[in-house]
């Protein structure tokens, strides 16, 4: 069951004036929306966000070409969340706020993941609120950037990836599969994975294959051809060449 309602929307040129019984966060990745709250009007853009507390009257009109993240935060549910009181502080008053580059990059990434994996809207919403809470409460761009990196590293759960890899070493493994496990696009997953581990995803898979193969070579009586098949090599020759390059010794000598 969804706790939050998070949508990536295009706000069109229709003028809307209303109130609602939930808090609302508005962040844009592109385009412009004119928004006014209690006599204060500004533009919501990629560099300017908006927090609307529950029951506050506001009016808005988009330019028809914007892309905007709209997050509805149910007031009654905040008490059930870890650090819910900190999130509640975000909405202690209506406000517009500057969006630093690190937060804008995180917004782009999370908007992309929301479109690909709408079922993860709760998790994406919490990551977004945590980043915004740290940025606005600490008022340091460095803090926002550090949290953005931490949020990505949380998505890249290496222990979970390793467990999946160990069950599929005999199969063809594609970057798209690994990215899907982390609810990231392949391109974004590749970039974040390399930043986190220092190697590409496929190089990491190759290393995992060979390290598992070495255990089999040293501690089993399986033929080298059988070992090669179990860890996903097409033949013993390619396995032996890769093994020698990585360990600087042939599998037969290592045995």
UniProtKB/TrEMBL annotation:
**SUPFAM superfamilies registered for this protein in UniProt:** Homeodomain-like (SSF46689), Regulatory protein AraC (SSF51215)
Q: Which UniProt keywords apply?
A: DNA-binding, Transcription, Transcription regulation
Q: Where is the HTH araC/xylS-type domain?
A: 159-255
PROSITE patterns from the entry? HTH_ARAC_FAMILY_2
Q: Does the keyword Transcription apply?
A: yes
What PANTHER family does this protein's entry cite? Answer: HTH-TYPE TRANSCRIPTIONAL ACTIVATOR RHAS-RELATED, TRANSCRIPTIONAL ACTIVATOR FEAR
- In its UniProt entry, what is this protein called? AraC family transcriptional regulator
Q: Which organism is it from?
A: Halomonas llamarensis
